[in-house]
Design goal:
Blueprint: E1 2-3, E2 9-10, E3 15-16, E4 21-22, E5 27-28, E6 33-34, E7 39-40, E8 45-46, E9 51-52, E10 57-58, E11 63-66, E12 71-74, E13 77-80, E14 86-89, E15 94-95, E16 100-102, E17 109-112, E18 117-118, E19 123-124, E20 129-130, E21 135-136, E22 141-142, E23 147-148, E24 153-154, E25 159-160, E26 165-166, E27 171-172, E28 177-178, E29 187-189, E30 194-195, H1 196-210
Parallel strand pairs: 2-5, 3-6, 4-7, 5-8, 6-9, 7-10, 8-11, 9-14, 10-15, 11-16, 14-17, 15-18, 16-19, 17-20, 18-21, 19-22, 20-23, 21-24, 22-25, 23-26, 24-27, 25-28, 27-29
Antiparallel strand pairs: 1-2, 12-13, 29-30
Length: 214
């Protein structure tokens, strides 16, 4: 491990392209690969075995490759499950400030597809696969082993249950909770999330029935 004049700690086994810009107080772990023209904000942690493509932008305070949240119950107590996989960030991805992207379990990958843009304060759990050119807006939480297609939009404060699939070009509106898989091209909203036109009709009926009494 070597410390730079800017307070960065970079493992000797890390491969960082010469054109990468690293702001102060960044940690880069062993066996990390970072491609050319990438920009890493201050106080970022990039844990071991993470692979980052070219022209990636990472905001301040973000943690990539951190230990995932996985437990099993034994004799009435929760025991932590090891996460031995890695994170792969493809080319032209932009990640905001204070984002967490957990590494995968059991030798698998957590992957963020090319061109995807992730806003601040987003959590991506272990084994999640996000496709290309997606938009993930602030305070969204994506649970483990979710698969998200290409060009998907998750608006602010969306929650996605583990093992759910969201098809290409789907849109999930703000403050929705996705408990079931969403087909390609669909627009969903609400808690639980349902097709947006159904959600609008539901709330219209609720307003007609109860709104005037308030």
């Amino acid at each position: 491990m070597r410390k730079t004049n800017s307070g960065n700690w970079i493992a000797p086994q890390a491969e960082v392209a010469s054109s990468v810009r690293i702001d102060p107080f960044v940690y880069i772990g062993p066996d990390v690969e970072i491609g050319s023209d990438t920009v890493i904000g201050s106080n970022v942690t990039i844990a071991g075995k993470t692979k980052i493509g070219v022209r990636v932008r990472i905001g301040p305070g973000t943690a990539i490759g951190c230990e995932g949240f996985g437990y099993e119950q034994r004799e009435g107590k929760y025991r932590h499950l090891p996460h031995t996989g890695r994170v792969v960030i493809e080319d032209d991805v932009e990640i905001g400030a204070n984002v967490t992207i957990a590494r995968a379990k059991e030798g698998r990958e957590t992957r963020i597809g090319q061109g995807t843009k992730i806003d601040c304060l987003v959590h991506v759990a272990h084994n999640v696969i996000i496709g290309r050119d997606c938009i993930i807006v602030a305070q969204t939480g994506i649970a483990g082993s979710v698969i998200i297609g290409d060009r998907v939009i998750l608006a602010g404060q969306v929650g996605v249950k583990d093992h759910v699939r969201i098809g290409d070009d789907a849109v999930i509106y703000a403050k929705s909770a996705v408990f079931r898989s969403v087909p390609a091209g669909a627009h969903y909203s609400g808690i639980p999330a349902r097709p947006h036109d159904q959600a609008l009709r539901f709330w219209a009926r609720m307003w007609r029935k109860f709104g005037r009494k308030q």
